[in-house]
Amino acid sequence: SSLHCVGMCGPLALMLPVHHLTNVKRFTALLLYQLGRIVTYSLLGLVFGLAGRRIYIAGFQQWFSIGMGILIVVILIAYYGYHKNIQPPFVSKLNTRVQKFIIVILQSRKTTFSFLLLGMANGLLPCGMVYVAIAGALTTSAITNGVLLMAMFGAGTAPAMMMVSYLGTSPGTQLRHAFRKIIPIGVAVMAVFLILRGMNLGIPFVSPVLQSKPGTPVECTEAVIAKQAK
Questions:
Q1: Cα dihedral across residues 128, 132, 95, 176: positive or negative
Q2: Up-side HSE of residue 26: CA atoms within 13 Å toward CB?
Q3: CA 2 → CA 95, 116, 156, 161, 222, distances in Å?
Q4: Please, which pLDDT band fits residue 42 given cuts at 50, 70 and 90?
Q5: How many Å apart are CA 152 and CA 133, to the nearest integer?
Q6: Are 119 and 35 contacting, i.e. CB atoms less than 8 angstroms apart?
Q7: Which residue, among 157, 219, 199, 174, has the nearest Cα to 61 in the 3D structure?
Q8: Best CA proximity match to 143, nearest among 57, 202, 227
Q9: DSSP state of 124
């Protein structure tokens, strides 16, 4: 994900007005910018983690995980094989609105809070790797796992993005081209893991046995407790 973020969001990171700031203020501003991205991703994890929890309670988590993996493979083939970008119309509208919001912040008076808002807005920009992370959040059985997954996704890309902002340069054309070759491999691996996860093969951490639905809750009453005590 870091390779993708540097290649796609690197130019946006270079636009941040931090070069005139002192080292301490620059570090603070860039850190707040990355924190804003993590906050947005965590909120997305909350929303989709809640949806994933509903799917788990309904007993469809196993097949849903397999379905998400297959969907990612189909999108990969369509995008890299047939050069077709599959995305709903509302994604383009969201992208336009977020870009306008970013421009407004960049043109306004800069405060510490501005960099946090810029980071939060950046987290809303349509991104293939974010979609993959969301797919992972949807297949979690607990809301906290969805939030944690998305937060770690954002935190994992932060060091590379900070480095781009500090160095003041983005990767060259050849390096970006190399990134594009590596990214589909990483996404394909994620898709395979989602499919394996839903197959209940009993492989720890890779394909653990998933319950089709939560177990039946046990009702504890005073009579039952007293009977068990005897």
A1: negative
A2: 17
A3: 21, 20, 7, 8, 55
A4: very high
A5: 10
A6: yes
A7: 199
A8: 57
A9: T
pLDDT, tens digit, for every residue of 1-41? 777 777 667 777 777 877 777 888 888 888 999 999 999 99
Q: How far apart (Å, rounded) are the C-alpha atoms in residues 163 and 51?
A: 35
The tokens for 144 are 């906290």
Decide: helix, strand or coil at residue 16: coil
| Burial class, 194, CB count within 10 angstroms (exposed 0-12 / middle 13-18 / buried 19+) | buried
CA distance 12 to 176: 15
Task: Tell me the backbone φ, ψ of residue 127, rounded to 5 degrees.
Answer: -155, 135
User: What is the reported pTM?
Assistant: 0.75
Phi, psi of 207 (to 5 degrees): -140, 65
Which residues, including other chains, have CB under 8 Å from residue 206's CB and lie 6 or more apart?
A: 193, 196, 197
| 3-state DSSP assignment of residue 38 | helix
CA pair distance 191, 153, nearest whole angstrom: 16
